Amino acid sequence: MEKYNHLFVAIDPDNQDQPALSRALDIAKKSQTPATLTLFLAVYDLSYEMTSMLSGDDQDEMRTGVLHQQEKWLKSILTEYDTENVILDFHVVWHKRPYECMIAKIFEGQFDLLIKSTHKHAKLGSILFTPTDWQLIRKCPCPVLLVKNIGWPSHGKILAAVNVAYENQVHEHFNDKLINEAKAMGGFLNSQINLVNAYPATPVNVTIELPEFDPASYTDAVRGHHLLSMKALRQKHGIDEEQTFCAEGLPEDVIPLVAKDINAELVIIGSTGRVGLSAMFIGNTAEHTIDSLQCDLLAIKPDGYVSPLAPTDTTD
Length: 316
Prior knowledge:
The chain is an alpha/beta fold. Helix content is 41%, strand content 20%. The strands form two sheets. A ten-stranded mixed β-sheet has the order 3-2-1-4-7-12-11-8-9-10, sandwiched between helices. Strands 5-6 form a two-stranded antiparallel ribbon.
């Protein structure tokens, strides 16, 4: 597991249980060399900022005291975990936007993976993602692993969502990157790697506007193209046909259904990290998909991705 040797772990300040820490330690212990875990805790309390009767120095002193207490709490919960042969680093900061300081720290340390716990919505059954989760998926330069408080069993299943209808080598390379990431994760879990691809349904407006249009032939042609492309991809990576799925529909519908059907422990998906108007009008498949997931998620950026929070070079 040399691929994941420098792990960034986002600590949940509101819970004693730390699923992200547990998952990070599981991964670290598979490394042949001592892995480094950077435990990061962002703290903020608006009430301290609104204490107008205190001077600036007094407010700083209060914040320092809170950070010291939180660091002691963080070190105390580590007694419940086996941290032998793991190098630990601690960072407790005061910041009202946790994702910003997390990403800034990641740029400083060149981490292999960011691991953060998330929560399962009791009524809906799916994962409830926080605003911080969304920001990390969009803007974090390294892979982001969002985990639930459920262990990963050995010999489980990993599902990588690919797009075989690519038009250039960039998409082809991104598919390879997603599958290689799935293999890396599956290596220490002894997990089965599965692939899923969604292809579009026949546009309804075309069948109305063109009476001579044959929707059945069109659907067969689209499905055939995707099946052939999926076959080439799975053969390239040595994955059995039974472990690949091509289904008609939107990715945000198909991926969660397949993940549920095969009982996947982890879904790996690509995120282009679009923000602003681009995200509004074009959309992010990853963001539309994960609302319905009932398992852990690993979000990967394509090669060449530049985070909007990347530090700028101020030198002349």
